[in-house]
Design a protein that fits this description.
The chain has 5 helices and 7 strands; from the N terminus they run αβαββαβααβββ. It has about 160 residues and is α/β, with parallel strands linked by helices.
Length: about 160
């Protein structure tokens, strides 16, 4: 698969999952956390799916389009592994993480800490959506509601 087709497949799966679960998230209490702002496309989409909902975004630095930058009080800058720890126990309704690099060795390092961080940020019944697998005993993997292959994007629920 070309890198372009790979990207389109991953983004389609991401959109399909978020579109399906956000009506449930809208009924839940708790923040929405976006781990990795990037260019801001997903943050922008979440604002449309969850109007009025507080979305706190984490990233190393701001590189997003100006229409996709959160307010200063909802932007946490620094290493996500470190800054996310300050929010442990926040009982978020949704944590979305798209911080994979596409390099197996780098993503393997992220896999050593990301699942635990996400599990500690979510409320029971909250959703985790990620571009990388989330193997953790408190995160139950759910089938992704998408026509894309099952390993394109990952959906979990906090048990």
């Amino acid at each position: 698969m070309s890198r372009l087709d790979n990207f389109i497949s991953r983004m389609t799966a991401q959109r399909d999952i978020l579109n399906q679960i956000c009506p449930e998230v809208a009924k839940m209490e708790g923040l929405v956390l976006e781990l990795g702002l990037g260019n801001g496309r997903t943050f922008h989409h979440l604002r449309e799916l969850l109007p009025g909902r507080r979305i706190v975004v984490f990233d190393r630095e701001v590189g997003a389009h100006t229409s996709s930058i959160p307010e200063a009080e909802n932007l946490v800058l620094g290493e996500i592994r470190e800054t996310g720890r300050k929010f442990i126990g926040i009982e978020a309704a949704l944590v979305h993480a798209d911080i994979g690099t596409g390099y197996d060795d780098r993503d393997a390092v992220t896999a050593t800490w990301l699942p635990d961080l996400i599990a500690s940020l979510l409320r029971v019944g909250g959703f985790a959506v990620s571009g990388t697998p989330l193997d953790h005993p408190l995160l139950q993997r759910l089938p992704a509601p998408t026509s894309e292959p099952a390993d394109r994007y990952f959906l979990c629920k906090r048990v």
